[in-house]
Each structure stands twice: as structure tokens, then as C-alpha cells.
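Whiteboard transcription, Tuesday session. T.W. wrote the C-alpha cells on the left side:
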């Protein structure tokens, strides 16, 4: 047992070190000193939208009011059945740089969002294409700073990492696992600072790509069946030999990804479904890892206290575990209490993975009113 506990303690120390390295090497775009570029290129902001009445008005208005001198906004209405079309029609009367494209149902081998993105790509005129979800709000100077940074870095793609807004304990605790995976468990600095194609990144809040780089990687034809298409785009671009850049968005982006704990569970179930379907053998790894890294140290530490002694490896794991999530709270402006609910986070994500594998194995997913069946 001590061997397992010491192994877990060493892993937590390494996770903490990697988190610090990732943060130290990450640029905060909201605070960076940037030089204005001459002859700014035309940028096309492409927004796929399906049943987005809750947030699309504020989001699209923020896209249309960027202080960048040369851009267009294209919203692809992906057959919305709510008030989204009416909201977009009203926005068109306010913003002359807004174009609304009414899409068609995707072909049988396409998912809805990649199909909408491809429709937007074909209609766009820009040298740079910015792909963004319809529930994201931009600060007015985001695009100017992003283009200045991407051009200055001679990058072919720039993705930004946001500080997610959450409400309620369970929503915040579940969302914090994204930061743990992306900033502690994943060597994010290699996605940006190395040419290794196994490490890349992307995000639905901000994927800015040169048109020629997007063409070189096959555009969205190569991602037509991808549920997590935004991250997939970064891997495709880097695999094509193009240069990838990334940064933290800081105060430049505001996004609440999901609006309740149950919606968070449903959303991540959808995102994990392809992994659960195609590579079910991977799923035991998080369960075993959670037992070793999270639950075993808690159990051993408090069981030892009741017996009158302190387990040093268990205490070491707990110290660095709480340091990891404390730093995540600090670095990404998350609620301080996320560091106090580690077992709850673990059990919550176990439930999400079980739902992905079992509940959706036969019936597939229903997301925003559209069904995606599992492929045998």
C-alpha cells in the first residue's frame, strides 16, 4: 500500500510542477505588449449557431463591435428551431458587417457543427478565419490584439484559453477538471513551443486560422465526424506542418460554457461519447487513476488519524493535490472552493464517463434537438 501511496504522491508533485511550467510559459494576451501591424488583413468571424437564443444576441453584438479595422461576421444558422433566427434578423438591422447564412441539414456522414463551419468557411472572404461558438462574449479590442500577436509570431493558427464563468458549487467543481486536464495533466507548453505533432490545442471560444493553413489540413471535411472539432482543428493544422500559437485570454473573453450542474454533465457526456465508443479500453484508466491519486490518499490519511498516526505519502498527496487546484483557482480566476471538493469532482466525472459508455452506447446522443446515433 505504501508503494501505491508514494507513487501517487510523486505524481501529484509532478502534476504541480507541470502546472507551474505551463503557466510560466503561457502568455496572457490581455496584458501582453503588442505592436500594431501595417496593412491589417481582412478577418472573417464565423459563428455556427443552433438554438442559441439564450446568449446569441450579446455574443454576436460583441463580435460585430470589434475595434479592428477590417472584418466581417458570418453567422451560420444551423436549422435553429427556437428564437435564434428572429434574434439574428434583428441584429442584421443593427450591424452592417453581419451576414446571416441559413444552413442546411448536414449530410449523413457529417455532424451539424462541422457542417455549419464548412458552410461559413466557403462563404468567408477573409485571409484569416476566426471560428467561435455562439455563446462567447469578446472585449472590443480582442481581435486587434489577436491579429497583432498571430502576425508577429508568424503563426498559422492561434487559439485562446478562457477563464470560464460558473455558478454553483457542482458546476464549478466539474468545470475545474478541464483546467486540471489541460494545464496540469497535459504538457500544454509542448503544443506551442515544440514541433511535436502529438501535442496541439484549440478551443471553441477562439480558433484563428490562416485560410491557406486551413486548406492545407483539409478544412472541415477532415473533421466532419468530430464532436470535439475545435481541439481537433489544432491537431490537423499542426499535423499539416503549420505553426500553432496559443495564449490565455484573460479579461478579453467571457464564457459560461454550461448553465447548471446537470447541463454540465450532459455536455461533457456528449464530448466524451466518441472516446467511450471508439476506445472503451481507455476508460478504466481514469477510474484507476482517480482511486490512486484522489480517493486513496483521503482514505489513508483520515484512517491513519483515527488510528493515531499520519501517513506521510498520503499527506504529501493531499498537500500537492490542494496546491494544484488552489493554483488553478488563482491562475484561471475560478472559485476558491474548487480545491476542497476533490472526491466530489472524481465521482462526478466517473458518472459522466459511465453515462458516455453505457447510456449512449445504443441510442447515441441528442444535442440541441438533433440526434447523433452511434456507429457500429
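and on the right, the sequence the group agreed on:
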Amino acid at each position: 500500500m505504501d508503494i501505491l501511496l508514494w507513487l501517487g504522491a510523486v505524481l501529484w508533485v509532478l502534476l504541480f510542477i507541470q502546472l507551474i511550467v505551463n503557466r510560466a510559459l503561457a502568455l496572457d494576451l490581455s496584458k501582453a505588449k503588442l505592436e500594431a501591424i501595417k496593412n491589417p488583413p481582412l478577418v472573417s468571424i464565423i459563428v455556427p449557431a443552433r438554438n442559441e437564443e439564450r446568449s446569441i444576441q450579446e455574443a454576436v453584438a460583441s463580435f460585430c463591435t470589434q475595434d479592428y479595422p477590417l472584418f466581417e461576421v458570418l453567422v451560420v444558422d444551423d436549422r435553429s428551431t427556437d428564437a435564434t433566427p428572429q434574434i439574428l434578423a434583428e441584429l442584421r438591422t443593427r450591424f452592417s458587417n453581419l451576414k446571416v447564412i441559413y444552413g442546411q441539414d448536414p449530410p449523413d456522414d457529417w455532424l451539424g457543427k462541422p457542417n455549419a463551419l464548412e458552410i461559413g468557411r466557403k462563404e468567408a472572404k477573409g485571409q484569416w478565419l476566426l471560428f467561435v461558438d455562439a455563446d462567447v462574449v469578446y472585449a472590443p479590442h480582442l481581435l486587434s490584439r489577436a491579429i497583432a500577436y498571430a502576425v508577429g509570431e508568424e503563426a498559422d493558427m492561434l487559439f485562446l484559453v478562457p477563464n470560464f464563468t460558473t455558478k454553483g458549487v457542482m458546476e464549478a467543481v466539474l468545470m475545474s477538471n478541464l483546467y486540471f486536464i489541460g494545464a496540469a495533466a497535459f504538457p500544454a507548453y509542448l503544443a506551442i513551443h515544440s514541433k511535436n505533432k502529438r501535442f496541439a490545442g484549440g478551443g471553441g471560444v477562439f480558433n484563428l486560422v490562416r485560410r491557406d493553413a486551413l486548406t492545407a489540413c483539409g478544412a472541415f471535411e477532415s473533421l466532419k465526424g468530430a464532436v470535439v472539432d475545435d481541439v481537433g482543428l489544432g491537431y490537423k493544422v499542426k499535423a499539416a506542418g503549420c505553426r500553432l500559437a496559443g495564449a490565455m485570454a484573460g479579461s478579453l473573453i467571457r464564457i459560461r460554457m454550461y448553465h447548471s450542474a446537470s447541463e454540465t454533465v450532459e455536455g461533457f457526456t456528449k464530448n466524451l461519447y466518441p472516446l467511450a465508443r471508439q476506445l472503451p479500453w481507455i476508460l478504466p484508466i481514469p477510474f484507476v487513476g482517480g482511486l490512486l491519486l484522489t480517493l486513496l490518499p483521503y482514505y489513508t490519511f483520515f484512517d491513519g488519524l483515527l488510528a493515531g498516526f499520519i501517513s506521510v505519502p498520503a499527506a504529501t498527496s493531499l498537500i500537492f493535490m490542494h496546491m494544484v487546484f488552489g493554483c488553478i483557482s488563482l491562475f484561471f480566476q475560478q472559485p476558491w472552493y474548487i480545491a476542497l471538493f476533490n472526491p466530489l469532482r472524481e465521482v462526478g466525472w466517473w458518472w459522466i464517463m459511465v453515462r458516455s459508455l453505457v447510456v449512449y452506447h445504443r441510442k447515441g446522443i441528442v444535442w440541441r434537438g438533433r440526434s447523433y446515433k452511434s456507429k457500429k
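Someone added at the bottom: The mean pLDDT is 91.
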